[in-house]
Amino acid sequence: MEGPSHAGRAVRLRGSSWDHPRGHAPMVATAAHYESVAGGTTSITWVPRTLTEFGVLSVEELAQQFDLIVIDHPHIGSMAESGCVVALDQYVDSSELTSLSTNSPGGSHQSYRYGGHQWAFAIDTACQTSAWRPDLLASLPRTWEDVITLAQGGRVLWPLCAVDAAASFMTLAAAHGEECATTTDFFVSRAIGRWALATMYDVARPSDPACLTANPIHVLDAFATSDDYLYAPLAFCYVNYSRIDFDKHHVSFGEIPAAQKKGTPRGALLGGAGLAVSAHSKFIDEAVAYARYVASPDVQRDLYFSSGGQPAHHAAWSSSTLNDLSGGFFESVGPVLANSWTRPNGPGFAAFQSEMIELFADWYDSAPAPTMFLDKLDDLYRDSLAVTRPRVDG
User: Fold this and answer.
1) CA distance 3 to 38
2) What does the alpha-carbon distance between residue 294 and residue 117 come to, in Å, rounded to a whole number?
3) Sign of the alpha-carbon torsion through 30, 32, 33, 37
4) Core-most of 30, 34, 179, 253, by most CB within 10 Å?
5) pLDDT score of 44 more than 90
6) What CATH class has 11-126+270-333?
7) Pairing relation of β-strands 11-18 and 68-71?
8) Whole-angstrom Cα distance, residue 73 to residue 60?
9) In angstroms, rounded to a whole number, what is the distance separating the alpha carbons of residues 272 and 291?
10) What pLDDT, in 10s, does the model give residues 275-323?
11) Are 23 and 70 in contact (CB under 8 A)?
12) What are the start and end residues of each CATH 3.40.190.10 domain in the chain?
């Protein structure tokens, strides 16, 4: 892909990524290669932020400091309404956007669309999956009842820090057939909310207490470096741990447990990352050109993956070569993505999600008697509807 015409200008862009080899390394690699593609006239420096900061930091503030921002899709509505990022459809042909949409695993590209405009390119696709040590676990739990039984042995480690507990709660609701935030009356029905919290509690109670402060990286690192644990029912997937060149214990990812014995696994929370361009940038055209480059099928299939990334284009997910190099990751996670659930991205949802995460810091103590907890969750959600519309269309 050719770079933009710079008319002799030396363009220096700054970007904000997230601090993990999957999130930061491919941005550094693509920036270095793009500098040569652009004839040395454009350079990009990437500054990482933590995984927690990735989910909660104000993108509006980041847009004041950076030309390019790797973002989480629930922030799209507030970003669009604030005007802090550019509508990419005003800079990119509709045919290119259509192609990206058509080739987007799990609707990742669509999750960055709001108000009829495209506000970021999907560059990384993920969702919650199960994770396990294939050398330690011969057969996977089929249902959540099976998970509760397996947990009695003390070797299930489920990342249930506040951020991931909130994510798992939403996945459990969708897995039971009720997606959150589809009505103005409540975030999730009381019966499903009670079931989700009880399920989380019944798995966590006999498990290592470390699960209550662990995020997916903590859990996957534990899987990769010891034989103490063998299964996590829900954790955002990381291809890095599944690659055949990974120098520690191999971790596999795949279907989540079903809510009922004859049920179909569904509703895994969609994650991933998108690349947005700040409206405050002095070099919007150049920043958009680089973002197009990163999201392009050739880069996603080749450099983005080879430098440690988890691509967001069908060209990568359908590649038998990449599937082999990743230990079957793309083949096993693909069906989970196809049945995943996307959070709302209206202007109030990101703030609500941050408040929800704070509430979930106390989920374990509240689970045995969850009425007040679920009342507070519904109150926070209804308050957020002053600036966000519920997902009544699915």
Assistant:
1) 5
2) 20
3) positive
4) 253
5) yes
6) alpha beta
7) parallel
8) 14
9) 16
10) 999 999 999 999 999 999 999 999 999 999 999 999 999 999 999 999 9
11) yes
12) 11-126+270-333, 128-269+348-394
Question: Between helices 144-151 and 190-204, what is the axis angle to 10°?
Answer: 30
Beta bridge partners of 156: 231
User: Hey, is 118 helix, strand or coil?
Assistant: strand
Continuous segment of H or E residues that includes residue 293:
helix 284-295
Indicate if the alpha-carbon torsion angle 251, 255, 256, 257 is positive or negative. negative
User: If you search the block for the tokens 């709302």, which residue do you land on?
Assistant: 344
Residue 105 tokens, joined: 């695993």
Structure tokens at 333: 């996670």
Structure tokens at 309: 């990334």
Cβ within 8 Å of residue 329, ≥6 positions away: 237, 239, 242, 243, 253, 323
**Average pLDDT of every residue of the chain:** 94
How far does Cα 324 stand from its chain's mean position? 23
Place of tokens 């957020």: 384
* SS3 label, residue 192: helix
Residue 5 one-letter amino acid: S
Token couple for 218: 């903590």
Residue 286 CB neighbours (<10 A): 24
Closest by CA to 31, choosing from 289, 229, 224, 225, is 289
Contact 365, 359 (CB under 8 A): no
Q: Which two tokens stand for residue 152?
A: 């009695």
Closest CA to 33 of 276, 314, 312, 300: 300
Rounded to an integer, what distance in angstroms lies between the CA atom of residue 233 and that of residue 219?
11
- Beta partners for 42? 11
Over residues 368-394, the mean pLDDT reads: 81
**Separation between Cα atoms, residue 219 and residue 166, nearest integer Å:** 17
How does DSSP classify residue 228?
S
**CATH, domain range 128-269+348-394:** 3.40.190.10
DSSP string, 121-167: EEEE--BEEEEE-TTT-SS---BHHHHHHHHTTS-B----SHHHHHH
